[in-house]
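It is worth pausing here to work through a concrete case rather than discussing structure prediction in the abstract. The textbook approach is simple: state the sequence, then state the predicted structure, then interpret. We follow exactly that order.
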Amino acid sequence: MWIECNRGSSEFVRMQQARAEKSLPKMRQFIRIQLSLLAFCFSLFSLLQAEAAERPNVIWIVVDDMSPNFSCYGETAIQTPHVDRLAAEGVRFTRAYATSPVCSTFRSALITGMYQTTTGTHHHRSGRGAHRITLPAGVKPVPQLFQEAGYYTCIGSGLLDLDYRSQPFTDRSRGRMGKTDYNFDWKRSIYDDNDWSRRRSGQPFFMQVQLHGGKLRGASAEAYAAFEQQVAELVGEGADAGEVLLPPYYPADRILLEDWALYLESVRVTDYHVGRVLQRLETEGLLENTLIVFFTDHGISHARGKQFLYDEGTHIPLVICGPHVQAGCVRTDLVEHIDVAALSLAAAGISVPDWMQGQNILAQDFQPKHAVFAARDRCGEAVDRIRSVRREDFLYIRNFFPNRPHLMPSNYKDSKLIIQRLRELHATQGIGAVGEELLFSQVRSAEELYLYRQDRWQIHNVAGNKKYTDELVRHRELLDKWIRQTNDHGTESDDVYVLEVEDQLKGIKSEASRKTYRANIETYRRWAREGM
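Step two, the predicted structure:
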């Protein structure tokens, strides 16, 4: 049997050899095709890897409470060489505006590329307690979109030795994430880390450098003294109160002048920090392939700045430099801060979602906007609703609660030394006629219209001037249309207001501040009942 089996096996082998010889040409052709496909796949994979490696890093430098007081924007009391460098190597926008003049609502709009009034995130520090806010269906925060595209997402100071205040890290602060302040439910996992240093080799990153900016100077005499010492250590002597030029509605009072000088020092410290970030990018060989977007979250924190829709509150610096950005360019068209989301995604090769209201203002086919919009709503316990539309030559503002004063009760604002000083000067008739009219009138005009090019500080309201009736009607209709089309959520109900302010009250430690806050709550609820 073994022999039979062996003879059978030999015959089988001969048959197989014959078949193989017959099919050899076909097999060789098959192998050549397979090798060609393998080579193609390898080339495609290599190409994709190269494209991934060439995708730019994207860095946002987001600064608190700061107007365009940089030398590249015309500020003469100080010099800001590092922000000036960004402007020289990229594009500087002269008419960029925040869609909201307070931190959390600005950031809620920034991180979605949508108006905060559309997403219902337009009340300051809302949606964090018993009352919850979720984004509209399908809307995702920008970091999540970057993550899904393979980017490493991080938020911090941009440095390995200094925190967001430009002070040395402590063991406690080293691992801390940067400022988010979103008024909606979100997952912390949208950020991989607080720095890009732990990403995979060659992985592009999306980084938010969050800086304390104008908040560095503090709000009290004690805070001023501490900040002066930090300034001396970091950047040396700088702004002199004698060189400060205040807006005309603020009196040239010593405290106000010194505060503004310290604010300018905060601009210098911010510029110093930006310089350190640029130096790090150069050292790590990353600068050439990194898009840098520098901007602030709203204007200076002052009586007519932060929280309000005049230039002092909404006009922000916006400087962009990096791959494919024309150097030394100055743009004078109107843009909004929510455009930063769209332009950043586009620069990274990520599709801009249809739901995003911001636009890629760097696109070759971008059409200049005919108008930009902004909104102020409840800030802390202070209930307000203001909307604005700005066009090339006009700023139109609508006050929905005109029977409430400009400097209405506010635990946050009234705790500031500069506001306390303004109230003291008002009580002694030392604030001046312009300041009295604009800051301390017990009522406001329902509508305000300002000639942008002729009225830098928005002092002369021409809404009642018949010469500008057509412009008033045009802007009024534009705003009404925007409110309808963007689904402006408007004022909170009393029930939601109570939930929100009670939640925020839990975070106030000072008993005196808690007492003031509660008293203010009752004032606003009474005003609402009385129709004020």
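Step three, interpretation. Residues 59 and 207 are 5 Å apart (CA to CA). Residues 2-54 form the longest helix (53 residues).
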